[in-house]
Amino acid sequence: MVALTQLVVVLDGTIVNIALPEAQADLGLTDVERQWVVTAYALAFGALLLLGGRIADYWGRKRSFIVGMIGFGIASAYGGLIGTGVELIVARGLQGVFAALMAPAALAILTTTFPSGRERNTAFAVFGSVAGAGAAVGLVLGGVLTEFFSWRWCLLVNVPVVLIAMVAAIYLLRESKAEGDNKYDFLGTVLVALGLGSLVYGFTLAEHGWDSLSAWAFLGAGAVLLALFFYSQARVAQPLLPLRVIANRVRGGSLLLQMVSGSVMIGMMLYLTFHLQIVLGFSPLLAGLASLPMTIVISIVAPIATMLLPRIGPKVLMVVGPLISAAGMVWLSGLSSTGNYWTEILPGLVLLGVGMAMLFVPMQNLALLGVEPHDAGAASAANTAAMQIGGSIGLGIYTALYTAGSATGTGLDAFVSGYSAVFIGTAVALLIGSIIAATFIRGSKEELMPMSNTPEKALHLG
């Protein structure tokens, strides 16, 4: 159920992408409004995640999860039934608001339900695999719904999923929350919401060119606000994000890897979709299906990686996995305007799926290693925020690479040159991810995978 929730949150960032051309024609959206359909979700989600995590800790994780699901379902239904572009943008923003409450609550529930041992490894392996495959599933589902039904069903499809998950949550989940005198950090909330929101919006503006003064202004403001946020967190009694959550070396490294994986998955899927539709002439449905092998490979390799985890430990998987994925991205960078899917794209997707499955299985687990129950929601929110911010940063950088690469060719060759530059960029990001894993993931196999996953056993790893 928690994995299903994560799937909804992740795929909702991509499912609308394939439907945007039809939605734009139906509602008469301008190009700016079309971009805001994507940005509104990312902006609200990224800006409010840490607040959502603390609400889950203090108010109750089950209660927050259910309220988040209900709000997300209502926002989805509203978005699928609206009649104007402005209403669609508002609906997407509301989806982001409630996803920011629902996502950290779901991950916190997973953390407190499976505190240690083999069950925890399995639970996080499933959760991580679903998170990694969500972008591709979103493209497939978006293609099916758009081609055979309507773009509106890319939003309405969330309603039955939400109803099922909500009923299951009511009967299956137990309530948990942080004990003691819990007070909200309102200054921290404002600083981090404005800071993360400025960063996400700044990188969104940068996708249209790094010469944008507005983009740099928002990025600069975001950096200053986040610096003030971290400064404030060290000086309040009950911070929004306790610095002990991210100061641990292993957890900090895992959060950095989360940013890398978010940038790669979101950036790669977007530009691969462009290549399949613009250069190879695939329909939305066929383009979605063409990305499915990566998801299939992840689902096959993840259980194997889960079985290997207790034997070889997480570090080997987290170092080698990104290298295999980088090889897949290098393969994809060799595409051409006259090539074909089976030789130029499929092998790269297989390699990418193998490597990402090896990374996803331990990464989510280590990002929450040794977190105190009192901080489960805050740590879960930081984990999700890392992927969201990584995706926003990645899109800005990859768009700049695409622009530079496409300037070297003409016609379809210009598109291909741009996509190739993007895939080389993702390969470099994965190499950096492997270095991060080798540097930050320190400790013996027993320390990184304690049978009793208590804060005391994990603290000395920092």
From TrEMBL:
Compartments where located: Cell membrane
GO molecular function, one term: transmembrane transporter activity
Sequence ranges assigned to domain Major facilitator superfamily (MFS) profile in this UniProt record: 1-445
Swiss-Prot/TrEMBL keywords: Cell membrane, Membrane, Transmembrane, Transmembrane helix, Transport
Pfam families according to UniProt: MFS_1
Keyword Magnesium among UniProt keywords: no
Cellular component GO terms held in the UniProt record: plasma membrane
Transmembrane segments: 36-53, 65-83, 89-110, 122-144, 150-172, 184-203, 215-234, 255-274, 286-309, 316-333, 345-369, 381-401, 421-441
Alphabetized CDD domains for the sequence: MFS_MMR_MDR_like
Topology in the lipid bilayer: Multi-pass membrane protein
Listed name of the protein: MFS transporter
Organism of this sequence: Mycetocola zhujimingii
